[in-house]
Amino acid sequence: MRTIKFRGKHLCGQWYYGNLIIRETDSPVSEIPCSYKCVLIGDVEDGSEEEVEENTVGQFTGFTDKNGKEIYEGDIVQVKSLKGVVTWHPEGYFCIHTQKCDIAETSYNAIGDLVDWLHREHYADGLEVIGNIHDNPELMKGGKK
């Protein structure tokens, strides 16, 4: 069975991992009669929930890198000279974008095919997570074009 989980970054900078919960809730300021979307990462085992920044939420791809580290949407990965960002493609799969620009203008590789090929061929310098776009955007500067 495929593991479905997410990660998101709390306003204080800590990463949380677990289930994605999106809740419409009343404004925290009682004088303002409106609602806002609250994005949370929750842990089923202990029932905890933490509010995270919506733009940092990324889904687990189901794959790990050469060191056994889980690969999430938004991670920056590298193998030899290929470096890119793990992204969800509109056609329904995770891919690695090798340029930081619009999806229609980038070259990409389906992450499942690439990881499978690297493991099958016992590629010495396998795919490695080197950071993510939220904490390490500078890693994509000068990436392969």
List keywords for this structure.
6-stranded antiparallel beta sheet; 145 residues; 5-stranded antiparallel beta sheet
Unreliable stretches covering 5 or more consecutive residues: 100-105, 119-124
Mean pLDDT equals 75
Largest sheet at a glance?
6 strands, antiparallel
The end-to-end distance, rounded to whole angstroms, is: 36 Å
Residue share in helices? under 10%
Q: What is the helix tally?
A: 1
Strand percentage, roughly?
35-45%
Please tally the β strands and state the result. 11
Structural class from helices and strands?
mainly beta
Estimate the global geometry from the Cα principal axes: globular
Radius of gyration using CA atoms only: 17 Å
Order of helices and strands: EEEEEEEEEEHE
| Major β-sheet strand ordering | 4-3-2-1-5-6
Structural overview:
The longest helix has 10 residues, at 111-120. Residues 100-105 and 119-124 have low confidence and may be disordered. A hairpin with a 2-residue loop joins strand 7 (75-79) and strand 8 (82-89). The chain has one helix spanning 111-120, and strands at 6-9, 15-26, 35-42, 49-51, 58-64, 70-72, 75-79, 82-89, 93-97, 108-110, 128-132. It is mainly β and 145 residues long.
Write the layout of secondary structure elements.
Elements (H helix, E strand, L loop, with lengths): L5 E4 L5 E12 L8 E8 L6 E3 L6 E7 L5 E3 L2 E5 L2 E8 L3 E5 L10 E3 H10 L7 E5 L13
Antiparallel strand pairs: 1-2, 1-5, 2-3, 3-4, 5-6, 7-8, 7-11, 8-9, 9-10
